[in-house]
Amino acid sequence: MKVLTVFGTRPEAIKMAPLVKRLNLEPGIESVLCVTAQHREMLDQVLDLFQLKPDYDLNIMQPNQTISAITANVLTGIEEVFVKERPDIVLVHGDTTTTFAASLAAFYNKVKIGHVEAGLRTYDKYSPYPEEMNRVLTSHLADFHFAPTENNRLNLLKEGVTDDAIFVTGNTVIDALLEVADKPYSFQDETLKGIDFINKRVITVTCHRRENLGEYMVQIFSAIRDLTLEFSDIEIIYPVHMNPKVRSTANEILKGIDRVHLIEPLQYQPFVNLMAKSYLIITDSGGMQEEAPALGKPVLVVRKETERPEAVAAGTVKLAGVERETIYGMARKLLTDASAHQRMANAINPYGDGHAAEHIISILKRRV
Ligand code: UD1
Ligand code: UDP
After folding, report:
1. Which of 46, 168, 186, 219 has the most CB atoms lying inside 10 A of its own CB?
2. pLDDT grade, residue 186 (50/70/90)?
């Protein structure tokens, strides 16, 4: 069986790495990897860490790229890979534009599609944008749906996906996290080496969603600035996403503020260790809503909704919205009320047993 895996951004690479590594070793499977490089530097960091060597690299990233340009470049770029390789199945992940465009190209070439991390929904077309529709459209194109949770399975059933095409496997992010979190590690980054993790409370921040660009990001970063003015024992560590629009707002509001450290994106291993040493995480990331519960770290999600209600139900994640006062108030509560913090800091893991990649491969072997 020839399996073509396609991904293009940092989170897809992290979550597909455990699967590709296993596929590469699996007898009876020929594994081919194509990266679109929708992200360049942030993708390469992950490829390096997991020692993955793509067979094809479409190298499509442009500064300030539009969604349409990503779609068009993936669609046309990947055509020759399908023609040359004729895979039995293509595996895509999650909700990026690489995912949707690669699925569409697979459909045009009549290649079966396995969708990893299927069935997450907000039911709001524009939030997250364009990820909600990328995921819905990919579901309509896919033949095999690897759902992380039972709740994701139910979402797919409601949309008419047949039961025997859905497999609840857990999320491969837990496979990646456990692989990395178990290894001893000390920080190499100069900023992180200088942080007093014992006497200071570290808040890890990330923010990048397209629907948060502009005014909402101003609100989010202003709340963070307000917190540093009130609490002298906190250090903000914010590895800033490479999107120039994110960088300009982050610099405008947070640069030069005492105890706010704006740093370059971290490799996955230092980043996981940073999360594990944090008191609190403030983010709009999808993946971190899955990783933080496993690490027992409270997360305030700076979005209006989440497609990951399991982490909210588990108590580790709270939706804080995108308004300065609300975000500030919720973070303040966790910084002043130890029992409120403790209630959120329980390590539970609604996203699987760390064997999702294994489950997916055994299904492929049975069904493709
Ligand atoms: C993309 C995905 C989003 C995912 C996110 C993870 C789409 C439309 N968006 O959003 O679903 O959650 O990745 O981070 O699929 N850039 C660099 N170097 C990099 C990466 C990005 O310079 O390594 C800059 C480029 O100027 C690029 C811009 O960031 O044009 C935006 O990248 P893009 O992939 O379009 O959007 P993200 O916000 O990263
Ligand atoms: N991450 C990382 N380095 C960083 C910031 C995040 O390795 O500096 C990891 C994080 O642990 C998670 C993923 O990147 O696994 C999240 O990626 P991102 O926020 O870009 O996308 P999203 O999760 O929103 O899809």
Report:
1. 46
2. very high
Which residues contact residue 115 at a Cβ distance below 8 angstroms, ignoring those fewer than 6 apart?
Answer: 92, 93, 99, 103, 138, 139, 142, 144, 145, 146
Question: Which protein residues are within 6 Å of ligand 2, measured from CB?
Answer: 10-11, 14, 206, 208, 239, 265-266, 268, 271, 285-288, 291
Instruction: Say if residue 59's pLDDT is above 90.
Output: yes
Phi, psi of 363, deg, nearest 5: -70, -45
Q: What is each CA distance from 156 to 89, 110, 165, 186, in whole angstroms? A: 20, 22, 10, 42
H or E element in which residue 204 lies: strand 201-206
| Residues linked to residue 201 through DSSP beta bridges, in sequence order | 234
3-class SS string, 131-145: HHHHHHHHHHHCCEE
User: What single string gives the DSSP state of each residue in 210-257?
Assistant: GGGTTHHHHHHHHHHHHHHHH-TTEEEEEE--S-HHHHHHHHHHHTT-
Q: Tell me the two tokens of residue 366.
A: 């049975």
Rounded to 10 degrees, the C-alpha dihedral 331/294/51/246 comes to -20
Q: Which ligand is nearest to the CA of 189?
A: 2
State which of 192, 285, 289 you would mutate to test the pocket of ligand 2, scoring each by most atoms of that ligand within 8 A of its C-beta. 285
Q: Which of 117, 81, 126, 86 is nearest to 99 (CA)?
A: 117
Calculate how far, in angstroms, residue 46's C-alpha sits from the geometric centre of ligand 1.
Answer: 14
Query: What was the pLDDT predicted at 187?
Result: 97
Cα(283)–Cα(212) distance, rounded to whole angstroms? 11
Q: Is the dihedral of CA 300, 303, 308, 310 positive or negative?
A: positive
DSSP calls for 7-19 = E-SHHHHHHHHHH
- 327, two tokens: 């975000």
Closest listed residue to residue 11, CA positions, set 51, 42, 52, 56: 42
Active site residues: 95, 117, 131, 208, 210, 241
pLDDT tens digit sequence for 18-54: 999 999 999 999 999 999 999 999 999 999 999 999 9
End-to-end CA distance of the chain: 8
Q: How far apart are CA 216 and CA 233, in angstroms?
A: 26
